[in-house]
Amino acid sequence: MVRLRVTVNDRAVERDVPERRSLADFLREDLGLTGTHVGCEHGVCGACTVLVDGATARSCLLFAVQLDGARVTTIEGLTPPEGLSPLQEAFHECHALQCGFCTPGMIVASHELLAENGTPTREEIREALSGNLCMCTGYVNIVRAVERAARSDGRA
Amino acid sequence: MSADRAAPWVGVPYPRKEDARLVAGRGSYVDDLTRAGLLHAAMLRSTHAHARIVAVDTREAEALPGVLATLTGAEAARLSRPIRPLIPTPVPLDDFCLAVDRVRFVGEPVAAVAAVDRATAEDAVERIAVTYEPLPAVLDPEAAIGPGAPLLYPELGTNVLWHDVLVYGDVDGAFARADGVLKERLRIQRYASTPLETFGCVVEHDAGTGSYAFWTNDQRPGLTLGILAESLGVTQSRVRLCCPEIGGAFGNKRRPAYLLVCALLAGKSGRPVKWIEDRLENLTALMHACNGVMDIELAYRGDGTVLAIRVRDIADEGKNLVSPTQHNLIKLGNIVNGYRIGAVRYEPYSVLTNKCPSGANRGIGKPFMCFAVERAMTLLARRLGLDPAEVRLRNYVSSDEMPYTTPPGAQYDSGDYAATLRTALARFDYAGWRAEQARGRPQGRLLGIGIATSVEPAGTNLASYELVTGRRAASGSAEAAMVRVEPDGEASAAIGDPASGQGYETVVAQIVADELGLTPERVHVQRGFDSSTTPWLYLSGNYSNKFSVTDVGAVVGAARKVREKILRIAAHRLEVAPADLELRDGAVRVRGMAGSGLSLREVARTAYADVLGLPAGEEPGLEARHAHQNTLAAPVDARRRVRSQLVFSNAAHCCLVEVDRSTGAVRILKYVVVHDCGRELNPLIVEGMVHGSTAHGIGAALLEEFHYDAGGQLLTASFMDYLKPTTLDVPDIEVDRLEHPSPFTPLGAKGVGEGGAIPGPAAVANAVEDALAPFGAIVRELPLTPERVWRLMREAPGSEAGRRVAPAPGDAVR
User: Would you say the ipTM is above 0.95?
Assistant: First the structure.
């Protein structure tokens, strides 16, 4: 066990964790943040994507103890207390999800893209999301949703 | 949207009710569930493709702190009964939840552990010692048929579970009469839809009552529940099965063996047990679509009319004892693929090999059947110097022939296949791209255009298994639903089909809203499935594209029963005839009398609370259950014809690719789908299904293959090796639609879940072959990886001619 001090969704957390516990398991099992999903556990599918100090990371490939002192943001942290974020609204309006299992990771990755580039081209969206697998949608509506979210942010 | 409306909700692109929780990460999938005292299971799996199990020693595993139970195959055989197959094998074979004395594929579970956490369980699995005596393995299905092949089940005397010859019409006469015969040998690889959420369960055993409760993402709970009860030796009344949110399924999500392993571990440990499959286990051992070899022959006239088809079809089932022959049977139902081909000969082989069990996978067999027919039609066009679109247009069943019965007994209910293709060609700008292709060829540009069209059946008829077994067991096609107006006047509904992304909570709400004069917001549809509250049948589940064929009928039937009761109660209260009433905007009103009437809440209050206000003889409460059987399902007839599936959507795919002549890489530049699934209940959801299903076809065409080495080791057991399409592989699929409602479904809707996956592989293959026309290459297998395309260019008979147009791959470095 190692003592871990980490900020998760703007809240300070202090826990003893086994050295081999992944960040994904720590978030899901120790903190009950089950919005982060685990799809492959080898860093390909992107379902477990979270933000570490503002940049996307695969929580299945990190040990929780590596996060000491870091700021971690999960889908729960990107969801407003009431209602949905513009990105979440756009996913809903564009039917950019079916089973919903990839969706949190997709939204976290899209959030990073829009934070860096408020007006991405379709090609830039496709490039930014190429590390997130979706088995249901064929990606067409996911790309549309990110485009729509970018536009709605621009208006606001 | 306005609540005061006369227009129906069905048909509206209503954004999904499920989304609010899912985009916020508030879904509830099986791995999100927990229990007090929960243990975690892990499984030891075979490292051999075929071996005798000499000994299994779990003592060291049991000695590890934190381990509460272990389970071996020998114990499982004592504690449970064999798993009943969906389609019985010719000789009953004992198939227990763990391998008992022999393993038959790499990844087959041999032993299991339950421990305080998953890491401890996995540590313990490594401490289990298994002594194997390796046996020769058979990987190739053609070799498995032959004499002297290693046998998976010596007691069966063969690896062939089904071999038959089915003849419909005068096949020999048609071949004798034909101007020509086109013959090809085509192959399909093993691939799978690999839902992003893997399989899993949480199982509780109540020793006091001898009952079990399962929470699992099994997509066919009606069938699975009975199998669990039988294998555990308890009555079905002592088994509760619940499906939470399911993170994709596509046919893959079913394996009662794993649920049984966890049930036995729960029984032994006295604690609830969770098991979540990891991706290695998923790719190695859950379910693959059959690979196979098909010999296809078309007898044709000089004008391109196809007179007859002969198919010899070898389906490699792996170690599939649960649903063998399913791929064959469904191919038979789809064998003429929308064409007026008057005579059919089908010779199926269903063959066991030492590979992962095959099973249901988006389209089951139809992608290969369509690949074969659509490859053959394209090659026929080439041979006759016809445009590939023209040869198809000359052969389609026309809309005025419908309902049209194909030689093996499938019924095409509605649609205009020629119009579907013509719409697709126009949308694609077929003539324009042909001209562009011709302009590029002299410069060595390898542009290719592929056309593939298909029919997409929906709903299943289990009586078709009689073709294999010779006797009736389960039959038909049906689903159950419940609709209730709650005491507060709000509606709820449930169906026996647990969604895995199809948006049933939304579509069912739209249907009920129309029937009860409500908005979809006021109809809460139960998520998933719970056998203790959801109405269900043996046939219940999420499979065979059946929602539109059976589930919709169940929902409509239940809602109409409630509606009639509402009207009877209101008529009694208002002292008018039910026929004078209308149900709109959450109230019952007397027609033509503004301001008159009763709110639904008031009717519900009467039904549940003020029951003296009910009409004489009326049962209190305001709910109804209804099960809908689609009447198209019928037994096998005397000529061995059967409707194995029930209503048929159709689609045309047009695909533009460019092949990189130096690397063989294929890029899809444009992809148009025009489809017709009858009345679209929710066009937003329908279009999403078309996108996703087409992406599955593209993955199978270009990327995905389970590749085994000669010893039976799976070489593609991670997403690093087994490649799924990403945002960079799937183009902006353009979708257009025709809408010919089915006369044979309650709201005129037809299947849409599989339509893209069926013609997708053929469309891409036809496009790649068209791009390689300068080389004279013929595409006979998938996936079209850069290496395979590169070899096609190098090794095709016309590679010299292709090289004269422009340098062939590899020339620059020679």
Answer: yes
